[in-house]
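assembly run, all chains below
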Amino acid sequence: MKTHSAGKTLVTILLILFLGTNAAMTTYAGEYAPEAVNLLPEAADAKAIQGPTTSITISAAGDCTLGIDSRYSHNFNKYYKKKGDSYFLRKVRSVFSRDDITIVNFEGTLTGSTKRARKTFTFKGPKKYASILKKGSVEVVNLANNHSKDYGKSSLTDTQKTLKKNKIGYCYNPTINYQTVKGVKTAFLGFNALERITKKQVKNGISQAKKNNAEIIIVSFHWGTERKYYPNSKQKSLGHYAIDCGASLVLGHHPHVLQGIEQYKGRYIVYSLGNFCFGGNSNPKDKDTMIFQQTFTLKNGKLQTKNDAKIIPCSLSSHKNTNDFQPKILSGSEKKRLIKKMNTLSKKLIGLFHEEK
Ligand SMILES: [Zn+2]
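ok done. output:
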């Protein structure tokens, strides 16, 4: 890989993406077998890891708005009433329940408050909607976004209380969530970059996680411009900075559409995960989304550079012409189309990897 030209490298990546599909599929069984692709041909070049190793697999998905803005639509609530809580993430649960930790961006509130903030869109759902996450095997949510206070500051506290009660972790700087699986501590940090945040806050948060002995540090950023397919310079600079400070993976959201994935210093920046289980729009034009999944390998408790990452192409709805709020895993030509799209969006970004050697 290292001596390849950028063009050749891209062809290789595309080839491996397609060839890797069948192999990855055998990992899973059942009705909703995810059609996964290996993102990381470089992993094969990584040094073989010797000694006792532990693997931690983390899945990440985009905006989950479990609720409605009653001024526009009641559809999400109607689906809940008719189908129940396990309906929404049923088709992706096979992925989320087999990993070690799942994180999504929770873009809304769980509150009974009627004090709507003055905004174009304000989202809320009743507290019982937390069970949608439970039933879907989601362990952590990011609350650092522009909708977590849609019904005032108390709506954020309400959401946090409900999540806590349901044993779902949440992050919103300065709150860091820690999850310990197989003896490995993973830290989840969240920053809403649409608010005024400083690089120092990012650095301090990551230092805090290190001080608390987190081996894997996942940093979520709410950033970018809505409906833009390419990250802006602020996203790139902040993403790089987080990794420079020690982040193991950077996850982005807010554009409501997918953006590319960059490999930087052997780590990934997923610029935008898009919408996922999104009650905020009854029929988004672009229904493409994905689950980004990375398996981190630790040797004697230390994080290695050998990391396996893949994307699982999804649609945010099981229906083409409407949003039924039930994300599904894509297959066949639709899966191929989305892989191609992600390669196009990531082309320039993955290119940056070659400057980093
Ligand atoms: Zn947002």
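Residues 1-36, 40-49, 351-357 have pLDDT under 50 and may be disordered.

The CA atoms of residues 13 and 41 lie 7 Å apart.

not gonna interpret more than that til we talk
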